Amino acid sequence: MSDESATNPIDQINAAMGDAISAQEAGNFAVAERRARTAWMLIASLPDSELRDERLRWKPESIEPIVKELAKRAQVSGSSSDQSHGAVFRQVDIEYQRG
Question: Quick one: where's region Disordered (predicted)?
Answer without folding.
Answer: 74-99
